[in-house]
Write a structure and sequence with these properties.
The complex is a heterodimer of chains A (331) and B (317). Chain A has 331 residues and is an alpha/beta fold. In chain A, 31% of the residues lie in helices and 22% in strands. Chain B has an 8-stranded mixed β-sheet, sandwiched between helices. The chains are: A alpha/beta (331), B alpha/beta (317).
């Protein structure tokens, strides 16, 4: 498998100014703090972490909605961070994003047809209106909004949450991208609808050979949809592994804890399992703890954890973890 | 607490009536955790508001009775009702930020509840507040009392709200999606706290949630709600291992788990019906794979096994 997206020491620091008029920032919010990640072609990589850990910022940085402050990332071996405006514009056809709150990302004053035509109008201004119409209708059928003529002239508010998410997916697919970033696409949906949308994601991936970066906070969703998983904590990736491997033997204490606290809909299993309850809540991304950033909450913290930041080590089977427990060469 | 045939009605401008809570009966025994599960818009939260007579106008509770220690809450005078709220029944909402007053400190807000229901002096009340905050797992209660809600994190706010709810030692605590806005690690802390409260203080808990995992974790009994009605109720084990109603079965099948990869993911076809035009007869019929002729009229409750009831004609013997 070839690498589609390669993220190298990507960083986004947001300056915090003392007051309105001070020029120099004395502190930074470490939203993304040196992330290294590879996404292979035609795979679904799930990015998991607690709220505020930088998942969504990473998504927005990857399509350059917010600029990065350091590091780089490449898409099909082209360095996106070095492109000029026009090259970036061309590049963006290949990568699309689907947001959690589609309601907010669809223009309330445009009909579904206008919304779906917009990307085509920007990138293929010479297409005739009949052609545009037929492309839109085709796309609506692919995302399961049938028959399309019932939907094209309606406005976003006339749709249910699940249908709106389908429109968001249709819009992302309009330009036949290779890479789709889905930022919590199912968190706002009910269980029965969530399954329908997830199945659509799986189906589309097969049909168009898509690559997904699937951002979520729900590990049970990851199990059913992803091929590999990356766990993020306070702006850094702490563990990367294939899904089966991860769920059978999670290595880092943080993923172990979130796995043990994810509710299981099975009373007997739920009563018998061992729950790891972490103390406190994640620290602020402004004052990052020294050394390993998880050591303030870690049940296995050692002396070294407060002093030295652990490096990513390979544990075999494509399983990587950044934790001193697995570091062979102790200093 | 015992609720019998509760119906809450909203009269719309066009004269139509809608019932977000329709003929609902529910029993919460002392010292138990009862779960009320359902998808969004099925009437779970409206049930909680109905119990406390907090239904926003033009909604009204039109039928039924709510018995707390044998006394019907719905027939109480306003004065008696406010003596009861906070003192015998307390509620925890999903979003503490809208529930807590942003311009008062946490101490002021908890003290208000204590002052209304007890005649403790300021010093005694302060001691009690510190103790309550410690009970809900606040590391530095002295600091929290002086904080305003926006200065606390999501988990801390939820703890502050629980502290407020238990400050007058209620017999019944209603928790409406208490952990939905929280991360799993913090959710686990809050659920442990609620479990401990039930165990140590003998409080009864009515937990409203959409998450089957949470139900499996802490509930003793479960009521499944669909489109304003209870469709099935029984002990947690009965509901999870011998679910009877097609909706409960479909819901459990479509729940994803960390235990196995389910592909393709099972779903329930169609969508939740709109309150304005419920299907005639059984409300789950259009989505049900067992639907038949007899479903055209509203099914009543049938006993599946001991203390396990189901609103479905499949169990009509």
């Amino acid at each position: 498998m070839s690498v589609l997206v390669k993220i190298n020491q990507l960083e986004r620091l947001i300056p915090v100014r003392k007051n309105l008029f001070s020029r120099q920032a004395d502190k930074y919010v470490h939203a993304i703090d040196g992330v290294n990640l590879e996404i292979f072609e035609n795979e679904t990589l799930a990015l998991v972490g607690e709220s505020g850990c930088g998942k969504s910022t990473l998504a927005k940085t990857l399509i350059n909605l917010v600029p990065s402050t350091g590091g780089s990332f490449t898409f099909s071996e082209i360095d996106i961070t070095r492109l000029n405006k026009r090259e970036l514009h061309e590049m963006r056809q290949n990568m699309q994003i689907i947001f959690q709150d589609v309601g907010a990302s669809l223009n309330p004053r445009k009909t579904v047809e206008q919304i779906l035509m917009q990307p085509l109008r920007v990138y293929h201004p010479k297409l005739k209106i009949q052609k545009l119409r037929s492309l839109v209708q085709e796309q609506l059928v692919t995302v399961g909004l049938e028959p399309p003529k019932n939907f094209i002239h309606r406005y976003p508010h006339e749709f249910s949450g699940g249908q709106r998410q389908r429109i968001g997916i249709a819009r992302a697919l309009m330009l036949s991208p290779k890479f789709i970033i889905a930022d919590e696409p199912v968190s706002a949906l009910d269980v029965s609808i969530r399954g329908q949308i997830l199945n659509l994601f799986l189906e589309l991936k097969e049909r168009y050979e898509l690559t997904y970066l699937f951002i979520t906070h729900d590990l049970s969703v990851v199990r059913s949809i992803a091929d590999r998983i990356a766990v993020m904590y306070l702006g850094k990736i702490v563990e990367i592994a294939p899904v089966e491997e991860f769920f059978s033997t999670p290595k880092h204490p943080y993923p172990q804890a979130i796995l043990s606290t994810t509710p299981i809909a099975d009373p007997k299993l739920s009563r018998s399992r061992n729950v790891i309850i972490l103390k406190d809540e994640p620290p602020s991304p402004i004052d990052i703890p020294s050394g390993c950033r998880f050591h303030t909450r870690c049940p296995n913290a050692m002396d070294i954890c407060g002093q030295l930041e652990p490096k990513m080590v390979n544990c075999g089977n494509e399983h990587f973890v950044a934790c001193h427990l697995y570091n062979e060469e102790k200093p | 607490m015992e609720i019998n045939h509760l119906t809450t009605t909203f009269k719309l401008i066009n004269g139509q009536d809608i019932n977000p809570v329709d003929d609902l009966s529910l029993v919460v025994k002392e010292g138990t955790v009862v779960g009320l599960v359902g998808e969004s818009g099925c009437g779970k939260s409206m049930t909680a508001l109905s119990i406390l007579s907090l239904v926003p106008p033009p909604g009204k509770t039109t039928q039924g009775e709510i018995l707390l220690n044998g006394e019907d809450i719905l027939s109480l005078s306003k004065k008696r009702l406010s003596a009861l709220r906070g003192n015998q029944i307390a509620i925890i909402f999903q979003d503490p930020l809208t529930f807590l007053n942003p311009v008062y400190t946490i101490e002021y807000q908890i003290r208000e509840a204590i002052k209304i229901h007890t005649n403790l002096s300021n010093e005694e009340a302060h001691e009690r507040i510190l103790e309550d905050l410690r009970k809900v797992g606040m590391a530095d209660p002295e600091h929290v009392t002086k904080s305003y809600p926006f200065e606390l994190s999501g988990g801390m706010r939820q703890r502050a709200m629980i502290a407020m709810a238990i400050s007058c030692e209620p017999q019944l605590l209603i928790a409406d999606e208490p952990t939905t806005a929280l991360d799993v690690t913090v959710q686990a802390q809050i659920l442990e706290l609620l479990k401990a409260l039930v165990k140590e203080k003998g409080i009864s808990l009515l937990l409203i949630t959409h998450d089957m995992g949470i139900v499996a974790d802490i509930c003793d009994e479960v009521y499944v709600m669909y489109a304003g009605q209870i469709v099935e109720n029984g002990s947690t084990d009965e509901i999870f291992y011998h679910s009877a109603h097609p909706y409960t079965q479909a819901l459990l099948e479509s729940v994803l788990t960390i235990e196995e990869c389910k592909r393709p993911i099972k779903t329930i076809k169609g969508v939740v019906p709109d309150f304005l035009n419920f299907p005639k007869g059984c409300r789950f019929m259009p989505r049900c794979s067992y639907a038949k002729e007899a479903c055209m009229s509203m099914p009543s409750f049938y006993e599946v096994s001991d203390n396990h009831f189901c609103r479905c004609v499949l169990f009509d013997k």
